[in-house]
Specification:
The protein has 358 residues and is α/β, with parallel strands linked by helices. Helix content is 22%, strand content 30%. Strand 8 (219-222) and strand 9 form a beta hairpin. Helix 1 (13-24) crosses helix 6. The radius of gyration is 22 Å and the shape is globular.
Amino acid sequence: MRKKVLVGMSGGVDSSVSALLLKEEGYDVSGVFMKVWDEKYKGFISGHSCFSPDRKDTEDVKSVAEMLGIKLYIVDLVKEFSNAVLDYFKKEYIKGRTPNPCVVCNRYIKFGILIEKMREMDSFDFFATGHYANVGYNRRKGRYILKKGMDKNKDQSYFLFLLTQTQLSNVMFPLGKYTKTEVRSIAERYKLPVSDKEESQDFIDGDIKKFFSGKEKQGDILDIEGNVIGRHKGIVFYTVGQRKGMGIAKGIPLYVIEIDTKHNRIVVGDKRKVYKSEFLVEKPNWVSIEGIKEPLKAYVRIRYKHTESPATIYPPDRYNYSKVVFDKPQWAITPGQAAVFYEGDVLLGGGFITTVYR
């Protein structure tokens, strides 16, 4: 009997080609589309982004499913997405942190609630997505291994660092061995209706200020000596490393180096002050290894597009915080973002950045 694979389909080229490749390999393929768009945000969020009006995406995913001859499910997760992802997104900004909603969505929605709901409706052996990543199994250690995708410019393993061993046990990433150029070429060769569709680059394309209407509170902008040099519009509109939008001039470019939520103020300094070396991550999730009891040398990525750099990761303390120290200072280590640990192509684990020291 053919293995059954459920493919998470977004209406984009990557997930569509994933379904195509699996069907070509002989799997019994069906697709599922997550409906997460909430109409109450209509008017200030638009464009082609992860969270945006999904009418066109719904039409596209139906066209692809019909062309491939596969069954398609459309699952309403508006409420669940709002509770798990949008609430997190807003709360992080209010705390003065910069959120990473794609990581949270993958762990709790796409590889979590979605799969749970689908198992109530149908049976399947594997769940597949269009992520550029790879998963394997280390028989000696009895552990699933998460690895980078072959296309280093498109590798998306970073966004999957919160996945558990249980979640990885039945996952397939058909695009892990392909480059984005090759995927586009496959879509064109098979004349998929989304072959030339623009891909979404951001979580939201729109005015996020509307999310915080009524919660903005102006405060002071300080230089590193503690002098008040301006006023900010609300800490939710700033992130570490930001230069534009502060409305201050001091003869040299100034960047956000700290967001002080306790006193509702922002500290700015010159470019050199944005480089830091040492920080904490909370509740690190170890993916390809069980954890560490001794300091570990690894390569660490602190943003999706950050070039990973060598660092030492220390075992968690009694409060489950791990200290990370880069060999060389890095630009804009930002609370709220994910620090992900690698050894070669293997993703060891990661955690969300909390305190940045120096």
